[in-house]
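new request in #modeling-help
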Amino acid sequence: MNKDTKDEIQDSNEKESTELNGVFTKKVHPISPAVYFFTSVLNAIWKGVYWLLDLIFSMFSSIFHFIKIIGVGIYNGAIGIVNFFKRKVHQFKYNDKAGRLSYFLFGYSSFSHKQYTNGVLFALFEVVYILMFAIFGVNAIYMLTAGRLGLVTPGSDPSCEDEMFCDWVAGDNSIMILIYGLLWILSIGLFLYIWNRSIDSGYYNYRIDEFIKFEEIDKKNIEISKRFDEEAKTAFDEGVSSANFLKSKKVEIEEYVSKIEDVQERDYTRYLLINNCRHSFKHFKKVQKQEKVIERLKKRKEVLVAQRAKGYEIQKAKYEQKRAAYTGDDELYLEKLEASLEKYDNKTMLKVAHSDKKISKQLHVLEEINKRYSTYVEMQHTKNNDKYGKFNDYYKHVANLDSNILFYTHYNEFKERYLSRLDKNKEKNQENAQAIVDLGKEMNEKINKTRANFDEIREKKKALNDELNQVKTTYKESVNAIKAAQEPNMEELLLEAKAKLVDETTLIMRRLNDLPTDKNIKLLEKEEIKESKNAYIRDKKFLKTNYTSEEFAFQEVVDMMILDYKLEYKEAVKFAKALFITEDKKEKRFLSEEEVAQKLNELKNQKDEYLTAHPDKYVGKSKSFIETVKGLFNDKFHVTILFFPVVGMLFISIMPLLFSILVAFTNYSQGHIPPTQLFTWTGLENFFTLFNPPENSPYLYLPSALMRTVQWTLIWAIVATFSNYILGIVVALLINKEGIKLKKLWRTIFMMTVAIPQFISLLSIATLLKDTGAVGTLYVQTFGTKLGFGSSTTAQGVLITKIIIILVNIWVGIPYTILSTTGILLNIPKDLYESARVDGAGAVTQFTKITMPYILFVTGPYLITQFVGNINNFNVIFFLTGGGPAITGSALLGLGQTDLLITFLYKIITSTNNPQYGIASTIGIVIFIICSFISIVMYNKSNSIKEEDQFQ
Amino acid sequence: MKSLKTGRIISNTIIYIILALMSIVWLLPIVWIILQSFGGSIGDKARLIPSEFTFNNYLYLFSNFTGITNPRGSNHSLDGYFFGWFCNTLIVAVLSCLISTLFVLGTAYALSRFRFKARTIFMKVNLVIGMFPGFLSMIIMYWVMRDIFHLQGNYMSLVIIYSAGAGGGYYIAKGFFDTISKNIDEAAMIDGASKSQIFWQIILPLAKPIIVYTVLTSFMGPWGDYVTSSYIIGLQNTENWTVAIGLYQFTTGQDIAASYYTQFAAGAVCVGLPITLLFFALQKYYVSGVTGGAVKG
């Protein structure tokens, strides 16, 4: 490149970069290199410190969050239990005899309401449970008193027959009690659940019996509750606290209630009204809070708008200044200048739009709150209707009759509507047809426009190419001319001509590169045309033109029924069809007035008959047994489908887990293995052994060894995770690069390590690398020394072993990364790369600035799980080295140099001569704490990143 | 223009060379183990290509039918067991694959389509359980299998352990179900289908990739597992071993490892070949499962 052009470009770059940040990635700083270096170092340090501080802060906030969650959970649980028993007391107080008996004799109320299947099931459960309790409970109590559970003293058991099992070692079998105890707690939970169901079904039956009475009380109190609401509103506005308001209201309520004679009604009314006051206060508070939020958002929006106006002015002034100062005719530069202004405008517009969106969202929430609000009494009323009324067939039948009566009383209205709408369809169909034609025109226009656009680009390209050729030919001609002239300064002239050529061609090439390639032009054009065609087809679907008059009218009637008479869609369709009678298959006719009157009469009679025929009308049924079973395959299908997995998890995952946590607080180990040698509670002794053992303990050096293992585990996890991740992405990029062939073959080769079971591939590699294996032998033959993989205890040997493990892990792990990132790589928008290339970014910059952030954003959670997975990566270490080389000096529970915490744990529990289950469980808890801590912190961090993105 | 083109050719060549080298590294151990399985003498372990080729290693593995025992003299206690182990592993893998596929798909469907009270609690608890090292529960599972199910040393206990807790691995399948539009469910519901009919007749046929993925992973897990099986079955119950325990003993067992290396290689080929073929036949689904799960997180 010519020196002058270079300078020119640099100059223009300098001008741009001082103000137009973010347009060009390549910046040239006008300050001196030393200062630049110093500031960037400071910047880097500050970034690091900031990151650290942020990390620490997020750690603390995660801990706080965790504690909060647990605290809230416990609090809610306690409140739930208290409320449960409160409700049971309430249900006992207001219940009939059968319902009260259901507390003790399960299913009694079901029997008295003729629900025999449910009753039998309830009763059966109770009998079986009591029998079980009788058998096992007595046995358990016997075992407690006979000294088989709990504290056991040394000596032999007199009732023992087999001598081998008679000599007890002193210990405390309470862990066994706990294990059985947990099972008992589970069974008691089941018992409580069934008990609850039995009581509830009794209570439902009672409520259904008394349904009319409750309904009347509800209706009676709607007026007064509304008055209370208004008073509560004024009190709230005046700033009276809810407690004070309740106090003053309670007197009034007591006065009102004392006039009621019936005890049950009095209590229910009091309950309704007091809750009403509480409920309205709660609602007002909610609304106030929401309004405050909206106000704050609005203020923020105002600030944003003001800032935007101000900033835009400044940017515009700068732009104009620069536009005036620029005298050259580089179109690209001018375009970019304009683009930067536009970019600023768009960015700030987006911010404002975002804030608008937020406000509308919160307004919607407020609307929802207000919409859902009704007085407590009304709410209770609808709840009762739902829960007790709609349960029974009686209610359904009457409701059905009611809606039929409604239809026939308004029959004429519907008929009129139908007739009046019959002619409307022609116009509508015409409108639709016209709209379709318009759409077609629009589509054609669009297509023509895109074609023209792309033709323009093609022409532009062609012109540029011609220009290029022109430049080349003139160059050749001038060279020939110079050579022919044979002047003394020929070489200089030649150089000059060449410089001119380079100068001109670079300018043209730059413009050419800005245009898309021929292939892309074709593709883009095709795509855009296809898109507009698709849009046409999609919009056309909504404008069907062949509606018949009947169909239009029919729809109108259905709409009317739904909107004006609040019928459900299905009902409305049914009734709209019932507008006509079809006597023959062809002919339809409306009902005559007499027929309508007759039908109405019939229905009314039916209703009266039904009402008189069922004096015990609200003695309804809750779901029958068959309905319940059917429900298990419909609305309650999740219960069916989750039952076995959850039970399995409970017994295979959760229960063993709880027990293993308990084991951490015992001395379960060699010499303490039941049934002949019991183990006992030792409190935190295992934790002390791990972190601060007493002087005479055999595990005196365990803390330092453990510290080393933890260190190695973390180093291993970090290195293994990131090496796999980054190298995997690199390989995926290599395979997916344009122009690379045989992509499928490469992928298949790498997939080999996923397909072959790990124990096979890793064991064979281990053999290959050992001193007796092929690679080990080769190493000895070439270097004269042993490789010592997994066996050499020198510092260098250990380091070699560790490095080889990591390399082998890359061998195993890369394919998974390739698998999971290939799709994402293909999804990265191509424009990003193109614009980066225009801005002069190289392959490395593209990788670090575009590829990595994009992939990290999508696969963040995957990376976290990978990290935790590597902390617990058992296979690689165990099959490759088995933890070796051994630690020289003291052999602590077989701990080796490359052991991870997890393989160490495995060694302890599978050791044949000294299994220390207690210490193993303690290590398990340590692993759990590390893993969960890392995951929580990382998840929180990634969440906060996401939120930040949303915020901007 | 010319220099651009040559540059591209150079860079592509470099990439081809890198990929070819990596492929060699990736395939070398596999090729080596296949060659070793035909190795005639134990000294071949130290060579890349065996000095003599023989088919006896394979015949030895199935000595129940072929009558070929260890060619290097001295009959060992492990002779004649391999076919049994192979059958055990096949039974365990197939059974636990069936059960755990049902569990995983059911759990994923329930969590994707139903909103019930314990849903979030279930998901949170599952997340926490996943962070606990699973080995610890092995101690307890050993007791449970011995004292409650009376299945100590029996490979059927492995089926329970592998499959009963499988419902916890629902994440990827749930991510897939979430992507199936709920409009389909609603349309079916209006037509009068119950939720169970929707699951069996509408969702499952649409979820073919994830079914294949779940079947494949839950088959591969038990097929290649050493840790759990060795602890639960125990080293004394030789006839109930799975192939993983047996092959591990071939390479590392005391006074076995020295002379059984080529037999191990033959066994590894026998175990690895079917699963590799299966994997590559169903690779398409596996890839879609993994990528779908990664994107959904």
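bot summary: DSSP finds 15 helices and no strands in chain B.
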